[in-house]
Amino acid sequence: MYKKGEVHYEPLALPDRVQMDPGDSLAAAQAHLAYLRKRHSVRQYAPHPVPEAVITTCIQAAGTAPSGANHQPWHFAAISNPAMKARIRAAAEDEERAFYTGGAGDEWLAALEPIGTGIDKPHLTDAPWLIVVFAQRYGVTEDGARYKNYYVPESVGIATGFLIAAIHQAGLVCLEHTPNPMKFLPALCGRGAEEKAVMILPVGYPATQATVPAAAKRKKPLDQIMTVFR
After folding, report:
1. Helix boundaries (H) for 99-218
2. What is the mean pLDDT of the chain?
3. Do the domain assignments include residue 112?
4. Is residue 18 part of a domain?
């Protein structure tokens, strides 16, 4: 975390060691892979409430992510307020309406066809929680001075990945919604001009009738996503 005037390096002995022998390491990695394969982006949510403590803990997990110069250039707004969710949904549907009625090219729309997306975004009000992820483009000290943040998109992307994994670990589902442009979100969530909303995650339990697009189950094989140099 950035602290004004703190410019020295102080080494700290590694506080936690989680290493295991190679056999146990492989088993743990395989178990983690098997569980991640059960993660799905879901658009239909059950009305069951989710305790605030669960959301808080998931966000705390996101906050442990590494970041450029350890500036942690992110903020997470957790919203259960129905009026705020309704406003976000209305704005999102306005943007989607413009997108689907001419804003997007034919190629983009064709790419989205197997996913089954459209203008209506009921998940933004049906889900018990929305988590708005903000990227802090620059920091502001307590006395109002600006300071530079580094590798902001990369840092926020890693933290968001941590958050999605934590939500899955908690037995919940979410959907990755990119709020473009929805510039009212910082003001709605009490954030400063230095922050930009980059993602909205509806979070909750899947509805009984929840579905996922068959296309979403098609993942690239390992030989297309990895190259090994021995």
Report:
1. 106-112, 123-126, 152-169, 185-188
2. 95
3. no
4. no
Q: Is 182's pLDDT higher than 90?
A: no
- pLDDT on residue 14: 96
Which residue matches tokens 């009738």?
209
Structural domain includes residue 127: yes
Query: Average of pLDDT values for 80-88?
Result: 98
Check residue 143 and give left, alpha or beta (phi > 0: left; psi -120 to 50: alpha).
alpha
Task: Count up the domains in the chain and report the number.
Answer: 1
| Residue 155 · residue 72 · CB < 8 Å | yes
What are the backbone angles phi and psi of residue 226, rounded to the nearest 5°? Answer: -140, 140
User: What is the domain extent for residue 162?
Assistant: 66-103+119-206
Q: Is the pTM here over 0.85, yes or no?
A: yes
Residue pair 194/139 in contact by the 8 Å Cβ criterion: yes
Res 181 pLDDT > 90:
no
Residues 177 and 117 sit within 8 Å (Cβ to Cβ): no
Domain contains 39 = no
Cα 29 off chain centre by: 22
Helices of type H across 47-127: 52-62, 82-98, 106-112, 123-126
Res. 3: pLDDT tops 90: no
CA 167 to chain centroid, in Å, comes to 10
Measured in residues, the chain has a length of: 230
The CATH number of residue 125's host domain is 3.40.109.10
